[in-house]
Design brief:
By secondary structure, this protein is an alpha+beta fold. Helix content is about 50%, strand content about 20%.
Length: about 425
């Protein structure tokens, strides 16, 4: 490891990216070399900063400082670091798979360079976690600058035409955000052991050059890698659409690309507003429904739908009941539900717990002082039903969710699913 070269690369890629990208793209290296000589060092920065902030400095509010236990902090730091290393390779696989769709050249080493040097801005900004109040702003600036770096770098590393760099960047960023969300979910919930093989043990470098990397298909990272494979298949159709010059075909192909990343085998039409609204009852016991609304939205070939009703009583009780159809993102919901551990936390005046019933993920929380809480359930790995508000007890919120025909909702899990 040459610390001088690492510092120089960080300085140059952040301060003079237009001249540094051609230099970086031309350097001979391997996957293993990029990891040991750059990625492994830079990715450790935000993990260490997060541990220092969470377990050593703590978060202060109204004179009270809260710290994560050292053991939990170390667990989160190690898993977060391991996931960032693996996630870098998964995103590189996707960037590589997309290359020909945007007139570029497939090359996994160059794709990993793209990720490594683009994410430099995010990794360095991650040190800002230590700075109170400014950490979110620093991370936001780092994220925006990383997008700019990606836009500048793709024409050099992946050899895509400059006029296609914007689209290439946009699709790559969307995918990275989705995968990053999953990774944060894993770090937030799974370090207690429910993820098992989600760490470095899921990643295997099978030759000395580090160019042959495999991921355990049964692990969480294996599921992420599968997303990359789906993207590669979908990219072929996108490439054909772009060659045709048909804007409608390009839009449809782009939607399929996003759907593939989201875990759908084809486009999914979410329930219509009238369909999903029909699941909300006119009343909840003595509470009368005061309002109801429903909508269905879509973007880039993915649709979601949501219906919400408000219920109120004369005694000041108020409950919000919501039914959501994740539609085109149902693959992500299924993954999150499979990854989530069962856990329980208690305080002097309440509790929070997550568990599974008949394969459905359930979350409940209750505060006895404010007499308020939330109860939600994931149905058919696609729909979510949630009740929250002021109530007599958590049982009243459970009854509110139970007023929705969950069996009928589960039976509609394949509704609107179309195979490519």
């Amino acid at each position: 490891m040459d610390s001088g070269k690492i510092i120089a690369r960080v300085k140059n890629i952040l301060s003079t990216p237009k001249t540094e990208w051609p230099v970086a793209a031309a350097e001979p290296t391997t996957v293993g070399g990029l990891y040991t000589g750059y990625i492994a060092i830079l990715a450790a920065l935000p993990a260490i900063a997060g541990f220092i902030k969470g377990s050593l400095i703590g978060t202060s509010f109204l004179g009270v400082t809260v710290r994560t236990s050292i053991g939990a902090g170390i667990g989160q730091m190690v898993l977060g670091y391991a996931l960032s290393l693996a996630l870098a390779y998964v995103v590189a696989l996707i960037i590589d798979a997309l290359a020909t769709s945007f007139g570029g050249q497939k090359n996994i080493v160059q794709a990993l360079k793209t990720v490594a040097y683009t994410w430099t801005a995010v990794w360095v900004a991650g040190i800002g976690a230590i700075v109170p109040w400014l950490s979110l702003l620093i991370l936001l600036v780092g994220g925006i600058y990383a997008i700019y770096l990606l836009y500048l770098g793709l024409p050099h590393t992946m050899k895509c035409p400059q006029d296609k760099a914007t689209g290439y960047t946009a699709v790559s960023v969307i995918i990275a955000i989705v995968l990053g969300w999953i990774a944060r979910l894993i770090v937030g919930l799974a370090f207690v052991g429910a993820m098992g093989g989600a760490g470095l043990s899921s990643v295997h470098i099978s030759d000395s050059s580090g160019d042959n990397v495999s991921v355990d298909s049964n692990s969480a990272l294996g599921r992420l890698a599968a997303m990359g494979q789906r993207a590669e298949q979908a990219s072929k159709e996108l490439e054909a659409a772009q060659k045709s010059g048909d804007s409608n075909a390009q839009s449809a192909a782009m939607g399929k690309m996003v759907g593939a990343i989201a875990g759908s085998n084809g486009p999914v039409e979410a329930l219509a507003p009238d369909q999903i609204k029909a699941f909300l009852p006119d009343s909840l016991g003595s509470l009368k429904r005061t309002s109801i609304s429903a909508e269905r939205n879509g973007a880039m070939g993915m649709q979601v739908a949501d219906a919400t009703a408000e219920y109120a009583g004369d005694n000041g009780q108020h409950i919000t009941l919501e039914v959501s159809d994740t539609g085109g993102a149902k693959g992500l919901v299924a993954m999150a539900a499979a990854m989530a551990p069962e856990e329980e936390k208690e305080t002097d005046h309440g509790y929070e717990k997550t568990y599974k019933v008949d394969g459905n993920l359930v979350h409940e929380e209750w505060d006895s002082q404010s007499r308020s809480g939330e109860y939600s359930v994931v149905v058919g790995q696609r729909f979510t039903v949630k009740a929250n508000g002021n109530a007599d007890s958590i049982d009243q919120l459970k009854q509110a969710v139970g007023s929705v025909d969950l069996g009928k909702l589960a039976s509609m899990k394949e509704s609107g699913v179309k195979s490519n």
